[in-house]
Every structure is written in C-alpha cells, then in structure tokens.
Amino acid sequence: MPIAAAFSNINEYLEEMLNWVRGKGKILIVVHDNPDPDCFASAMALNHLFVMKLNRQAVLSFSGMIGRSENLVMAKLLQIPLTPLAILDINDYQVVCMVDTQPGAGNNSYPAEARVDILIDHHPVKESSKRCRFVDIRPDYGVTATILFEYLVTQNIPIGTKLGTALFYAIKSETQDLGREAAQPDRKAYQHLFHLTNKLLLYEICHPKLPLEYFLSLSNALKHAKVYGSILVANLRSVLFPEMVAELADFLLRLEKIETVLCMGHYNNEMVLSMRTIRHDTNVGEIIKALVAGNGTAGGHGMMAGGKLSNIAASSEEMLRIERMLTTRLFKTLGTPKVKSEKLIHSNSQS
Fold it and tell me: What is the DSSP string of 20-48?
C-alpha cells in the first residue's frame, strides 16, 4: 500500500501510480454523494492527468443529486461529464479511484467493502482507507482540488481554462476565499489558478439565478432558528435538495454574535446535518461525530462538518425530537450548560 507521504517526493509517487494504471483496463472515479465543487474539480483534474499521461479517459461517477444552483451551473458551463453510479457495474472497472471521500465514510454510495485502488482526500484518515493500493490523504489541506492541482504541476501538465476555472472555484468556495481552513498550498494554488480562470464563467457560477425553493428554505430557516447565546440551531424541516442544509449553515454563520451553527433538514428519509464555526479552538468535525453517535454517520474538519441520521420519519414531531436530541448532545459535548433559547424572528400579532 504505497502512501504518498512515504515517498521522497510526490513525482516518484505519481510515476509509480501511473505505471500501475498504465497496464490496467477501464478507470472509474467516484466522488461523494450530492457532489460539490471540490468533487467536480478533483475528478476533472485526475481524469486530465490520465488523459495527458496515459491517453486514457476515466468515467466520472456520482450518486444523489446536484441541487445547489452554483453547482448545477458549474457542471453545465464547464461541461463536466458525470455518470450516475447506480447505472454502472463497478466490476467492469479495473481501476477505481475515489476523491474527496473515503471507503465506508457514509457520504458516498460506493459499496464499503468494494475495492478502491487510488484514494485522494483531505479529510482525516479512516481505518478502511489503509487497504487501498495508493493513498494520498492530507488533512492539513483545505481542499482536495489543491492536491490534484499539485499533481498536474509536478507532472508539467498544462491546465486549460475550464479546468483552471473549476479548480479555482473549488478552492474559492471550500475555503470561503481562503478565509476558512486554507493552508499555504491552497493559497498558492488559488493565486496561480486565478490567472487561468474564465472570469465570465466564474461570475455566472458565483451568481446563479435561484429557484423559489431556495427562498422557501431560507424562510423556514429564519422562522425555526433558535439562538443559544453564540450558538444558532436551525431546523429547516423538509428540504428539496440536501446541499441546502450546508448552504444555509454558511449563510446563518454570518449573523452577528453567532460563532457556531448547527443546521438540519429532512431529505429522503434522512436528517441531513451541517455544522459551521468561526472558532479556531473548536473542532466541529469531532463534535458532529458525537452528535450522531449510534444513530448516523458524520465527519469534517475544525471549522466545517456534515453528517446524517438515517430512517427518520418526515413528521414534524419526529423532526422536533431530533432537533431536541441534537441540541442536548451539542451542549453536553461542548461541556457548557444549555442556556435558554431565543427565537431568531418573533412574529408580531396585531390586536
């Protein structure tokens, strides 16, 4: 199991990996469910590496749905060729790559027991990942796309406008313009890639038209949000696409005096969770694991994390029960007494 860190330099690691792939058949690249810009850009870059060095095209696969408007526009304008994993037979592929997720992580639909040959990610290492043939996991990086950018630079592979725009936007969105969990390599990649981007495409991706459902979910978030001092908990109830939970967690974190946000929404018999914080002394990746312990899966970093609880009924009573349970666990995990909540918005009744 060659691990990138064990090699004297990344080029040596890449040469061994490429030599191994060269003698194999069809290539599959798997990303996490409901893919985000980091998934898109990382998969595009890895495929570009195979095309340029081996003259081989990979199949880029995903599960779930692409619901966030920015992600839909990105996939359309950059012509990202995505194939639903459900219609593929994984046994047809002699090389299986996984980017921005890990085997059995709970956020991808690839069978946990199935073979993964090449693994590239920036989340904390899972035990199951150690059985992969080639592993490059860098938890100190803010974005998986940065790792793939370094692959291309190391191999002296030119980066075209569409791929450059994809990689740049992945870093931009994941790190909030380098303000959240960006490491030095992310900053270097961001600065280099800026000059390669198509600014018109970038503008259209960053400022898409939003569907009515976005504003309905925002209304639900504001109506049901509860403030506990510097912590905000928002229950969106039912959402039409799961990315909305993370999107509104980012949005609500901008509220003055709020330092940590726990956002949740019901989608497809699951309660989707997202946590955000501005505190550097808090690890929400570990906190959210404690919140779902025994009930679901979760993971993340110091300042951003996500998870889900499965087999959750769509009733208002069940969603409120989940909210109470998670809120209680949140304060217990933080080791602080639960303060009285205040509604974010108070409805004014007229006499």
Answer: HHHTS--EEEE--SS--HHHHHHHHHHHH
**Size of the chain, expressed as the number of residues it contains:** 351
Q: What would the two tokens of residue 255 be?
A: 């509220």
The answer to whether residue 351 scores a pLDDT higher than 60 is no
* Residues paired with 309 in a beta bridge: 271, 296
Query: CA 41 → CA 37, 78, 257, distances in Å?
Result: 6, 10, 34
Whether 249 and 274 have beta carbons less than 8 Å apart is answered as yes
Tell me the per-residue pLDDT of 268-310, one tens digit each, with 9 for 90 and over. Answer: 999 999 999 999 888 999 999 999 998 899 988 889 999 999 9
Measured CA to CA, the distance from residue 182 to residue 283 in angstroms comes to 15
The residues facing 136 across adjacent strands are 120
**What's the rounded Cα separation, in Å, for the pair 71 and 48?**
20
Beta strand 27-30 with 342-343: parallel, antiparallel or unpaired? unpaired
The whole-model pTM stands at: 0.90
C-beta separation of 241 from 247 below 8 A: no
Q: What are phi and psi of 90, to 5 degrees?
A: -65, -20
For the chain, domains (ranges, CATH) are 4-206 (3.90.1640.10), 212-343 (3.10.310.40)
The helix (H) or strand (E) run that includes residue 325 is helix 316-334
Residue 349 reports pLDDT greater than 60: no
Give the pLDDT of residue 58.
98
Q: For residue 305, what are the β-bridge partners? A: 275, 300
Mean pLDDT in the chain? 94
